[in-house]
Structure formats: C-alpha cells, structure tokens
Write a structure and sequence with these properties.
Rossmann fold; single chain; alpha/beta; five-stranded parallel β-sheet; 2 domains; two-stranded antiparallel sheet
Length: 361
C-alpha cells in the first residue's frame, strides 16, 4: 500500500535501524531509554550493526553528538544553538527518535506561543460544565514527557516571549509541574528531559534569561566546515526528501550540487572559495537547509515541466528566489556576483550564468 502521509516521523522512517540497534544492544540502557548512549551515537553518526547498515543522520563533529547524548543521560536539559540550516531540529528529532522511539512531543516556538502550551490548558466546555478535573485538562507535550519519563522538544525557543520561556525554569529546576486548580504536583519520571533549539540569527528577539540558560547544557552546532562536507549533507538530505515526494525527476548530479554549494558558501562567507576575491553578501542567510530546498524545487521543475533532468534554467530559477529576498538590495548584489565571479569561471559555468542573467533582464 502506498504511503500517503507527507512526512513520517524519524522513528518510523528509520524503524528498521532502530529495531536492529535495540535487538543487538549489549551496553547498559538508562531509565526511560530504548537503547544505550553508544547505540544512540551509532544511530546518529552511522555505522553497522549485524547486517544492518546505519545511515548517518548528522554529518559533522561526532564529539558534539557525544556531548549532546551525555547531557541527556544526566538531569540537565539540552540546548542546541546554531545558524539556520545547521541541522538543529534534525538532530533534535533523531535524538528523541533513538532514545524514546517517539519524536512527536514538540512545541514550536513562535511569537504566539503561550505559557499554557508549555504547561497545560483546559477544555473550557468541560471546565464550565463540571469544574476542574483531570478529564478537562489538556496536557502539553512537556507535561506528557514528564509523566512518561521521555524527552520533549521545544523548537526555536528564542522566538517565544520571555515570560513563556521562563515557564520552563521551575520545570527544569524542580522536575515537577504544579496544578493548583486540582491541588496536584506531578513529578517527572526518570528519563524526562527537554531538547530546545535556538537560532543565532534570532539573537535579541527574545533573549533567554541567565536563569534559564543555566538549566541547559549548550551545544553549538557549526556550519559545515568545508565544501565537501556541505555537499555530502545536501546530497544525503535531498535523496531522503525526494524519496517521499512524487518529483518525477532524477537526483541532482555532483556538478549541480557543487555549483549550488559553491555559490551559497561564497555569498555566505563574503569571499570566493579560493579567497582571491571579496563578494557582497545578500540579506538572506543562504543556509544548507535552503540549498536542500532549492535542489528539491529544481527537481520539481524538471519533473513537472521538463524531461526529469535538472537544467541550468531550473537551477537559475531556484537561485534567484533563494538569493533575492529584498528586491532592491539583493538584486544588485546578485548581478555583481554573476558578472564578477560566475562569468569568469569558464565554460563549465557558462550555461548557468546565461540562465541567471536571462532572469534579471
């Protein structure tokens, strides 16, 4: 039967790998966990267990992954910080999938997130009809995680208002939630923790208080160290994403991936890869995540309106949308990059250069 769900959670997408790791487990498993810390590392970083190949979920510094896993063994919460597109949410999801077999206890931080979404709220029809009761309570993902001794995720915590963020302080300190309406105090079971993510580009939106930061162990996830590493991440994620979508197109070849990653790295870093020439950066971040999205969109164009192979025209359309966020400023920067950098790179880049210039006439 064909899968009709647009996006499956990590624990379902990689269920065979998780089951293989659990079946082969030989090391001590912490309370509330499905597998040992070593097995979680293997699941995240890749390896082999028996005849099952474990695909790497995070391509980067393995030591950072070990620090993150070790944090969750303790009673400390984990905060993943980094630029957009450094796989904070991706790592958070896969950590909870491996540790608990459930990555769906998620709170998405926004300007509209309320304290009730962190703690609990009420079914007001039942509240009015019968008064406060357990049946009328609507428990948050954090509440459920405390009851079951599992991990809850708080995405983009710096997007939440300060008073909403601070609702976590007593939870992380006392490891319990008070429900004064029912005269209850619900203690956290062993295995409970929180993984939060924060975007460095959102710094200053709603700065986390020092009191809240002290409750977290902080792991900073860096951008890909070099072109090769970024290409590997992009290739892997495009293959995974496109497998769940009906794009009717071939995966981008090495040359296409290299061109996109080269352009993104140069505009992001403000200089060409060989450091011979300075370039101006656009207003957008041009993250690795955007490179992945750009290639998936290019595949959709090629599959829907072409012959299934990504052309320079498909790529140019995606680049235009990725780079030019603020029309007046970014279009000037993009035209300068085309004429001063891409045009001078020879015949290999000529087709893409012409396709990009055509869109800017």
């Amino acid at each position: 039967m064909k899968q009709e769900v647009l996006r499956l959670p990590a624990e379902q997408l990689f269920q065979k790998e998780i089951d293989a790791l659990i079946a082969a487990e030989k090391d001590p498993v912490p309370a509330g966990w499905k597998m040992s810390p070593r097995s979680v590392r293997t699941y995240i970083c890749g390896g082999k267990v028996g005849k099952t190949v474990i695909t790497p979920k995070y391509i980067g510094h393995e030591r950072l992954v070990e620090i993150a896993i070790a944090t969750l063994v303790t009673d400390r919460a984990l905060l993943l910080i980094g630029e957009p597109g450094t796989a904070k949410s991706w790592l958070s999801e896969h950590l909870t999938a491996a540790i608990n077999g459930d990555s769906t206890k998620v709170i998405q931080g926004t300007a509209g997130t309320t304290e009730e979404q962190i703690r609990y709220s009420w079914n007001y029809a039942m509240l009015i009809a019968k008064g406060p009761s357990l049946d009328a309570m609507l428990k948050s993902p954090v509440f459920h995680a405390m009851e079951t001794g599992s991990i809850a995720r708080v995405e983009e915590i710096s997007r939440c208002a300060s008073e909403v963020q601070d609702a976590l302080i007593s939870i992380l300190s006392e490891k319990r939630i008070s429900v004064p309406e029912l005269g209850l105090e619900v203690p956290a079971q062993k295995g409970f923790s929180i993984i939060a993510t924060a975007n460095t580009r959102d710094k200053g939106v709603n700065d986390m208080s020092a009191a809240l930061k002290r409750r977290f162990n902080i792991v900073v996830l860096p951008s890909p160290a070099n072109l090769h590493a970024e290409m590997e991440i992009v290739r892997t994620r495009v293959e995974q994403l496109s497998g769940n979508l009906d794009l009717n197109a071939k995966l981008p070849d090495e040359d296409v991936v290299e061109k996109v990653c080269t352009i993104f790295r140069e505009l992001r870093n403000g200089e060409t890869l060989d450091r011979s020439q300075k370039v101006k950066g656009p207003s957008g971040v041009l993250s690795t995540a955007e490179a992945i999205s750009l290639l998936c969109n290019s595949m959709a164009l090629a599959g829907s309106f072409g012959k299934g192979d990504i052309t320079d025209e498909d790529l140019a359309a995606g680049l235009q949308g990725a780079v030019v966020k603020e029309e007046e400023k970014d279009i000037v920067i993009w035209k300068e990059y085309l004429d001063n950098v891409m045009k001078k790179r020879g015949s290999r880049w000529t087709g893409l250069y012409k396709a990009c210039k055509e869109l800017n006439r």
